[in-house]
Amino acid sequence: MVEKSETGGFWPSLYDPFRSFGARVADWLSPAAEASSGKEAYDIAMELPGVSQEDVELTVDNNMLTIRGEKRTQSEKKGDTWYFSERQYGAFRRSFRLPDDADGQAASAKMVEGVLHVSVPKKALGASDTARKIEISNG
After folding, report:
1. Measured between alpha carbons, how far is 12 from 80 in angstroms, rounded to an integer?
2. Which of 45, 46, 43 has the alpha carbon at shortest distance from 107?
3. What sign has the CA pseudo-torsion 20, 22, 26, 29?
4. What is the pLDDT of residue 138?
5. In the prediction, which pLDDT does 15 show?
6. 114 Cβ neighbours under 8 A, 6+ residues apart
């Protein structure tokens, strides 16, 4: 059986391999992160070398932690001949779905030597979280 491409023909589109290329490049250029779970909190560490604390924004909405920022440069060198440059500049955004027992409203963050550390405490177990026996009533 021959499958048709999205363009309606029997030949695959020349653009098919590139359809999700932008998303893959964005993922590749996103800052590296690691997440872990401790006894009392969830921790996320994200490498942000060259990014100032003022250029980073953290939000929690509907159990989703989002880290946005921008890496900028202020230096200017005149007269240099550049052979190549591997510096990365621009905006970035990473989102993390928090577990149900995470207290996103109590999250805290600090920047230490180019690494952003986000701590999200775990919710304390309340009376409603404990097991209980349910009595069956008549009628």
Report:
1. 47
2. 43
3. positive
4. 59
5. 57
6. 47, 48, 49, 50, 51
Tell me the residue ranges of DSSP E strands in the chain: 33-37, 41-47, 56-61, 64-71, 90-97, 108-112, 115-121
pLDDT along the chain (139 residues), means of 10: 51 57 52 92 92 90 90 66 67 91 91 92 65 59
Q: DSSP state, 31?
A: P
Q: Which of 87, 96, 90 is nearest to 116 (CA)?
A: 96
Q: What are the sequence ranges of the domains in the chain?
A: 39-73+88-123
Strand order of the sheet with strand 56-61? 56-61, 64-71, 90-97
Q: What is the DSSP letter of 12?
A: P
Domain 39-73+88-123 -> CATH class: mainly beta
In this structure, which amino acid lies at residue 89? Answer: Y
- Cβ within 8 Å of residue 48, ≥6 positions away: 31, 56, 69, 71, 111, 114, 115, 116
DSSP 8-state assignment for residue 63: T
Residue found by looking up tokens 């999205």 in the block:
6
DSSP letter (8 states) at residue 2: P
